[in-house]
Structures are given as C-alpha cells and as structure tokens.
Amino acid sequence: MSSPSIVWLRDDLRVSDNPALCAALDRGEPVIVVYVLDHDSPEIRPLGAASRWWLHHSLTALGAETESLGSRLILRRGAARAVIPALVAETNAGAVFWNRRYGANRAIDADLKSSLTESGVTAQSFTANLLHDPWSHQTQGGQPFKVFTPFWKAYLNQHSPRLPWDAPASIPAPATRPASDDLADWALLPTRDWADTFPTHWTPGEAGAHERLNDFLANGLELYHRRDEPGVPSTSHLSPHLRFGEISPYQVWHQTKLAAGPALDKNADRFLSEVGWREFSYHQLFMNPDISTRNLKPEWDAFPWKPVSQARLRAWKQGRTGIGLVDAGMRELWVSGTMHNRVRMVAASFLIKNLGIDWRIGEQWFWDTLVDADEASNPASWQWVAGSGYDAAPYFRVFNPELQAEKFDGDAVYRRTWIPEWGTSSYPQPIINLATSRTEALAAYEAMREPAAPQHP
Ligand SMILES: Cc1cc2nc3c(=O)[nH]c(=O)nc-3n(C[C@H](O)[C@H](O)[C@H](O)COP(=O)(O)OP(=O)(O)OC[C@H]3O[C@@H](n4cnc5c(N)ncnc54)[C@H](O)[C@@H]3O)c2cc1C
Question: What is the CB < 6 Å shell around ligand 1?
C-alpha cells in the first residue's frame, strides 16, 4: 500500500520554485496537495476582507493548475494542529512537507513537526518565501539587525540567491483522492459589491504573478527611478503576489537580473533593495511576533494619543479629509485594494501625526482593505511611519501632505485619477489645520520623551 506525501501549502500558492512540492515529488510516492483555512488557531491573524478576496481567486487558480498537472487541490478548514494529523491518519501519509512561515504561526509548525516526527511521519520544512531565513545572519556583535542598510549589505555580502526551480511536469495523485471542502462554502468573497472593481486591477494566481513581473520588467523597470511619483506607472505591483507566494523572491531576483543588464543596473538594484525591505520586515516579525500590537520601542507605550474622533477617522477611511494626496490614496485603496508606497507613508503619517490616532487603528484598516496585507510588512511599515519601529523615521519629521503632493504629484495626475471632484467646489474643506496639528504632535512627542517629574508629597 502506498504511503503518500502531503504538501501543505500556506503562503506559497504556486507550483514552480516550490521546495516543499519538489521534496514530496522526490520521495516518489503519490502526492496530496492541501490548503488549510485556519482561522481557529490563536497564533493566526484572521485574514482581512481584501485578502480573503485574493485568497479565493488564488486558490481557484491553483486548483486549476494542480488539476492540469493530474492532481487536485484539497481544501480543509480548522485548526492546523488537528487538521493535518487527521489528514495524515486518513490517507496513511508517510511524510508532510511545507515551506516556512515566520510569525507567531511558526509555533503551530514547530508543534506539528515534533508530533508528526514522534509518530514516525517525516516532517520537513524549507526556505521558500524569503531569500533567507530571518535567523541566518546577525550583526557583528551577534545581535539581530535593527537598521535596514547594514542588514541588506550583510545579506548581499553573505548570500547569493539560489536559482529558482521549474514547475513539475505532473503531480502523481493517490488512487483515492481525499475529500475536499468546496471553496464556495468558505464564503471568502465579500457580500457587498465593494470588491467588484478589483478584477480590473488584479489577476490573482501564479500565471497572473508572472505576467505582472514580465510586464514590469518590459515597461516599468526603466522608470523605476521615478517610483516615488504615484502618477507614474513605474512600480511592479507584485506585492500581493509575493504576499501569497504566487511568485517566489528567487524568481523575481533572477528574472530581474537577467532583464536589467548593465543599462538598468541601478534601477534593478533599487527594485531588489525594496524586495530587501520585505526581508527586513520579516526579520522584525521573527524577532517580534506581536509586532502588530506592541510598540517596538517601549517608550512609545507612554505616547499620549488623542481620543479617537470617529468623524475624523471615518473621513480618513473614506478619503474625505480635504487633503488631496491623502484622499486620493485612501480612495485608491478602497477601489483597487492597493495604494502607492509614497502615498501609504503620507496617509499613515496624516492619521498618526495630524489626527493623533494610534498607528494600530490605521494598521488594522490597511490589514482589512489591502490585497497585499502582510503580517510583517504592514505593521513594520506603520511602526516605521509612527516612529515606534526599527530604523524608523524620527517622529519630528512630519510629512507635509501638501508639500509631498507638490513634489511627487505636481501635475495632480494621481489626485485627479482617484478624486473625480478634484478642483471643484464639491471637494471637502480640510478637516484639520496641518500646521496646528503638526505643532500639537510635536508637543505630544516631547511630552512622551520627557515625562512629567514625579510630584513630591
Ligand atoms: C503604512 C504602510 C503599510 C504597508 N503595508 C504593506 C503590506 O501590508 N504589504 C506589503 O507588501 N507592503 C506594504 N507596504 C510597503 C509598500 O508600500 C508596498 O510593498 C508597495 O507599495 C507595493 O507596491 P509594488 O509591488 O508596486 O512595489 P515595488 O516598488 O515594485 O517593490 C517590489 C516589492 O518589494 C516589496 N516592498 C516594496 N517596498 C516595501 C516596503 N517599504 N516594505 C516592505 N516590502 C516592500 C513588496 O513586496 C513589493 O512588491 C506598506 C507601506 C506603508 C508605508
């Protein structure tokens, strides 16, 4: 009787350059490919609405891909600590393979590795979604890196990304295929029509990811030095594809190097260093699994956030603050599930510093509405903007959204794209005075740095 291998896919929804799948195929037994929707384990951060939309379509694409290779994607739901051993028992599997993850969720993987091994089942994990495991390099003093530039320099000096692996020609399925949930029963798609516009912006799945990379290398890379200008189509839009592992950073790395050649060397290096920021975010997540809730700099626990004005928060979410660049970004987010990087910084800074609202509230909104909502990059970036994170912008450097707009969207192409009433009387007046709110933010920051002296009785 055969003893199949299970490939447990998580943030690696692809068949090419997938080390866990390759290991299963090498074992020479039939292969069961499974995805587990785990919203039950306490270590898992439940997906936001935009990510659920993406996941639905990505799993649809992966299901078709595995069928075309002679197999079937099995869907199961529940706490992975129970679901995986149950599938092992049901199928008499002899091995389980997966690609690593690095947040609090890694505790689930560690538990499963020991329990499966103890029961005589091979359990093996691989590096696949990052260019390096976050623990694999440290400062000369043996400490984790807290600053990006030396982190990335050390990576480039010590590693050279391995070549990506091809997709298999086929995946041998077991004689009896295990039962699978019906994807529709997972109800991942929103019940409101909010995401109807997403398909005009995105094609989730491995094929869509490679199309996006090829298009970027052919048309965007030569403009990448203008990546800060939101009205210029110069960035890759690969982030949700990388987030769900529909493409690997190794594939991105080598294809970029190949396409760039000497003429576009600088643009390629800059682009790959942004991929390096993604690695740095995971480095931070690995050290701080609670990065989405805890200030990485503890002194920030004393920051005097303002009581949340629901009206202002709503105006920010709806892109009706009267500050053009912020509103354009927030509307881009709502309509397309993404926002240009520079505008993310400006919109986040406006919420935190001008409205005085705790970064965690903005982070949660992004978590819910971004198709690339990432458990490492999202909180690390919010903490970077706030000043509470690693290598963070100093708090006193408050972005002025009007100056940012002049500098990076001088012809208002971006603002006009996302704000139909831009420049007309129906566009709202600013909900806050930028200069006064900046002064208040700096005073709050000073209050945090110099807490009031204790009163003597
Ligand atoms: C407040 C805030 C929240 C953010 N939340 C997320 C998030 O949830 N998920 C996410 O992937 N990125 C996040 N970012 C980082 C960045 O804005 C996006 O990765 C980028 O806009 C994606 O567009 P792109 O794929 O065209 O980027 P490109 O410029 O083409 O960059 C290539 C790839 O590098 C990675 N990358 C680029 N910039 C960063 C960065 N600053 N930090 C980490 N990785 C980066 C992404 O994977 C991206 O696809 C956030 C930034 C800010 C300021």
Answer: 227, 235-239, 242-243, 274-275, 277-278, 281, 341, 344-345, 348, 366, 370, 372-374, 377-378, 381-382, 385
